[in-house]
Amino acid sequence: MMRKILLALLTAATPLMFSANTSLAAEVLPTVTVAATPSIDMVLMIVAVEKGFLEREGLSAKLQMFDSSPGALHGVTAGLADITNNTAPPQLAARARGAKIVQVMTAYLSGLNNGDVVNGKVIHNAQDFVGKTIGVQRGSGADYDLTKFLEFHKIPRDKIQIKYLDAPDQIPALARGDIQGFFSWEPFLTRATQIVPGAKIFSVSKDEGVIFASNVVMSEDMAKNHKPVAVKIVKGLIAAADWIRANPEGAAEVSNNVLKAPSLKELTEQIKKYQWVGDFKRKVYENEVSVAQWGAKIGLFPAKDPAQLVKDMIYPEIIKEAAPHRTDF
After folding, report:
1. Coil, strand or helix: which one is 210?
2. Which of 3.40.50.300, 3.40.190.10, 3.40.50.1110, 3.30.450.20 is the CATH number of 114-208?
3. What is the CA radius of gyration of the chain?
């Protein structure tokens, strides 16, 4: 008799258990692929995933690593990733060539991240750049910084020899003597002074009045056709930016699993060179119009109307819903 009663109870409970499991299985979180590189300017992307800020917004997030920042951007334009962050030049170039991407927020501002490293034995002042061979990654923020440096010091561009090199190739070129200096960003600036005898940081971009904004870019399809997911992404990134700003040491520890810096102390100091703003302001538009005009002038990308190119790429609708107090658009 007792066996019959137990069997009846188990039989009655079984549909309830199956129903509960079926409900859990049906709850599939939206997946977001975050493109990043082993570079300090990607700390926001790394922390947002590794520290769980995107997961807390109900997203299943994963990092997709690329060799370079342009590679990460290509990952988004090619549909291999959903978001990344870069400075304006490569994003504008991609949009001008038809890439369906939009900027949805600013990750950081910095006038200390970009700069130039020189062979201190042959370059002592700005006029010593004349006649020297200087490396830079074409179409990067560093390329724009080089232009502003030359303008600031009134050095005609044709008075130096420019050698286009990807950022990782610049330090070996300086060590070999192929170039006498290069314009780049961290960690390459600091790393060059540690590796190449006589190398020193000559200036940083704020010395020429240049403050870089790195903006988060996502596919236009996600921003406009999957807005609830896009809003969750921006909310998660804002929370991550706030946490990095308040906890640079913690951010260094979390991101170093990817960045593999020589020391947490060095990485922490480099993270502090950024203002992790997590907002989207009108001044971004003004700065990017200047960059777009420069890019079109040097033939970096086609743009009959640089201002319109910027307008088409800036998309504040997501942050207006995610955090209206973080934008003045």
Report:
1. coil
2. 3.40.190.10
3. 24
Tens digit of pLDDT for each residue in 73-95? 999 999 999 999 999 999 999 99
Separation CA 44–CA 225 (nearest Å): 24
Instruction: Say what the pTM is.
Output: 0.85
Question: At the top level of CATH, which class does the domain 31-110+212-326 belong to?
Answer: alpha beta
Examine the pLDDT at 314 and tell me if it is beyond 80: yes
Cα–Cα distance between 228 and 168 in angstroms, integer?
38
The answer on pLDDT for 326 being more than 60 is yes
Neighbours of 68 (CB within 10 A): 17
Structure-token match 């700069």, residue found: 115
Q: 206 by DSSP, 3-state: which?
A: helix
Matching residue, tokens 């050698």: 163
Task: Specify the amino acid at residue 162.
Answer: I
Positive or negative CA dihedral for 306, 321, 275, 139? negative
* Angle in degrees, CA 275, 279, 282, rounded to 5: 105
Which one-letter DSSP state was computed for residue 68? Answer: S
The number of CA neighbours under 13 Å toward the Cβ of 88 is 27
Q: Does position 160 have pLDDT exceeding 80, yes or no?
A: yes
pLDDT digits (tens, 9 = 90+) for 201-256: 999 999 999 999 999 999 999 999 999 999 999 999 999 999 999 999 999 999 99
Give 3-12's long-range contacts (Cβ < 8 A, gap of 24+). none
Q: At 22, which amino acid appears? A: T
Rounded distance, CA 180 to CA 159, Å? 14
- Do 106 and 215 touch, CB atoms closer than 8 A? yes
The per-residue pLDDT for range 92-120, each reduced to its tens digit, is 999 999 999 999 999 999 999 999 999 99
